[in-house]
Amino acid sequence: MYNKVVTDYLDETVQRCPKKIGFVDQEGEVSFKKFRDYSYAVASEIINRNVFKKPIAIYLDKSTKCLYSFMGVVYSGNFYTPLDVDMPIERVRKICEVLEPEYIITDAAHEDTVSGLGVPLILLDNLDGSFNLEAIKNVNRKIIDTDLVYVLFTSGSTGVPKGVSISHRNVITYMEWSAEAFGFNETTVFGNQTPFYFSMSVLDIFQTLKSAATINIIPKKLFSFPAELLEYIDANGINTIYWVPSALCQVANLKALENPKHLGKLHSVLFAGEVMPTKQLNMWRRALPDAMYANLFGPTEVTDICSYYILNRELKDSESVPIGQACDNMSLLILNDKNKEVKKGEIGELCARGASLAYGYYNSSDKTKMTFVQNPLNQSYPETIYRTGDLVYVNELDEIIYVSRKDFQIKHMGYRIELGEIEAAVSSLDGIQRACCLYDKEKSRIVLFYSGCLEMRDIKRGIKTLIPKYMIPNDFVKMEEMPLNLNGKIDRQKLNNMILVGGPNEG
Amino acid sequence: MRDKLIALLDDIDEDIVSYDGSNLFDAGLLDSFAVIEIVGEMEKIFSIEIKSEDVIEKNFKTVENMFALLKRVMGMEKSTNS
């Protein structure tokens, strides 16, 4: 049977195995049937307020509660945006200004934080668990697969986050491919690492619904302590992980893999979000030789992934891990600066087309037009491609290899960051004249060069209320004057050379 | 030694030093990135090696506990050297 909307997955799974535990967090375990009842209760609450096809934000700790709130929104015919409870409230406000949500779903613990945003709240604590199934079914008949499921916000270069708009069809395309490619089923137990406001979590969440798998939300704290993390994985029967490479490297670098007695059940190790260093990948492969390893690649704008590579040969520490080939029902073009396809071995920009391509950025048609463009190879009918901004080439084995970014977007600890967003926050402080951020890839550090009268601690204190913690620069270099190029712009090349030569001053 | 540790933590986030509760992780002041940074800096500044079994919540949840870990590791290094 063909699925039209993502909640069809949940309905089928409830029919097939209602009592199976699908969700595990620090509060306990929840079966699929219970999970759907909770989702229905949230949906009924929204339907009673007569909203349809509108954005509803979710401001909750990462938990099962958060997941059934998502599904409640979807059953009600609306779409959700997860908001990070750890991000500064000023950034939440910016997101709300773009999204204009009808409601924020939250709980008593977070009520005070979000009550000043001017958006009406729905408090989960006030729901009594009842629902009106007939009303839900009526609404469901009106939802079609081109309607939105969610809007995920990602860093924007001017300082305003961009909301990537994803439809039912997008998610279903992604789920049908990934289930087939990696063989997920009801024995799969996901050890979820990625935050729910991050596109990678979409696989863990929706594959749990589709494949009747189990999602175990690993407490965030454990990622600081690899030995305890591996014990948790073992004790909870986790056999599949889809993590950012930073999390995998943390385990490898803190030597937790040297004695891998806790890795027995783990059989699938997937990663995406940033470049996986081959050295640490090889440490994993030595510790756990029989597992399947896969490198997944794609931006939020293609739902999550457009290309993938299942490791099938040895890689030297000095080789890069290929990003492989296009996923099913997706197609990739590599274009040069004249918009022509490159030859094998030549570097060009990766562009994607296909059924998991997002519509664009919510309430931002100007930004959408810059990267969601007409396929330059097709003059005959409207066909959108997404320009990823990633430079790649194809090797002799027909595998795509990632080279670098075209612009100032970086991946730091798995987070996608526009350096411009950090610069905008720093520049907004009184006492700053110019600010320029660079990324030291070798050492994985964000380096801020600035001129003005502020010291490091003043800047840190100032931007802490504006941008998330993971965007705060690691090194601060105060300049008498910023080097400028002939056009009067900050000379990034010169600053970059300063990093490459002995590195900026310590601390 | 204590001063150096405080200075190191202060550079990462001044709120870590002024925090007087019982768990920096629950307070949202420490996360996995900060732990890597602290471990790396401690190893560099004090020329020690911190083993994976010592990277556990108990040893990092307060400044006092980090100081105790540091003293213990440095004490052990001294005794093995002599």
Kindly list the characteristics that best describe this protein.
A: 507 residues, Rossmann fold, GMP Synthetase, Chain A, domain 3, five-stranded mixed sheet, 25% strand, B: 82 residues, mainly alpha, 5 helices, 65% helix, globular
What does this 3D model show about the protein?
The complex is a heterodimer of chains A (507) and B (82). Chain A is of the alpha/beta class. Among the domains of chain A are: 1-167, ANL, N-terminal domain (Rossmann fold, 3-Layer(aba) Sandwich); 330-353 and 365-405, Luciferase, domain 3 (Roll), CATH 2.30.38; 409-500, 2-Layer Sandwich (GMP Synthetase, Chain A, domain 3). In chain A, 30% of the residues lie in helices and 25% in strands. Chain A has 15 helices and 26 strands. In chain A, the strands form 7 sheets. A 5-stranded mixed sheet of chain A has the order 11-12-13-14-15. In chain A, strands 16, 17, 19, 20 and 21 form a 5-stranded antiparallel sheet that branches. In chain A, α1 (7-16) crosses α8, α7 packs across α8 (201-211) and α10 (245-253) crosses α11. The model of chain A has no long low-confidence stretch (mean pLDDT 94). Chain B has 82 residues and is mainly alpha-helical. Chain B has one domain (2-81): Orthogonal Bundle (Non-ribosomal Peptide Synthetase Peptidyl Carrier Protein, Chain A). Chain B contains 5 helices and no strands. Chain B has helices at residues 2-12, 14-18, 32-45, 57-60, 63-81. The radius of gyration of chain B is 12 Å and the shape is globular. The two termini of chain B are 20 Å apart. The interface between A and B is medium-sized, with 25 and 21 residues.
The gist of it:
The complex is a heterodimer of chains A (507) and B (82). Chain A is an alpha/beta fold and 507 residues long. In chain A, the strands form seven sheets. Chain A has a five-stranded mixed beta sheet.
